[in-house]
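Same chain as my last thread, 82 residues:
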Amino acid sequence: MTGNGFRPMTGNGFRPMTGNGFRPMTGNGFRPMTGNGFRPMTGNGFRPMTGNGFRPMTGNGFRPMTGNGFRPVMGRYPAFDP
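reply #2:
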C-alpha cells in the first residue's frame, strides 16, 4: 500500500484535479459571464425601453388623440361631410 503501488494517488495520476483539467472554471471558459457575452443587458440590447421603442406613447404615435386623427369631431370633414 505504498504511494506508487496499485492505486496511485498523485496529482497527475488517474484523476487530474488541476485548474485547466477536465472541468475548466476560468472566466472565459464554458460559461462566459461578461457584459457583452450571451445575455447583453445594455440599453439598446434585446429589450429596448426607450420612448420611441416598442411601445411609443407619444401624441401622434400608435393611438392619435388629435382633433383630426382617427375620430374626427369637426363639423366640416371632406370624407364624411362634403
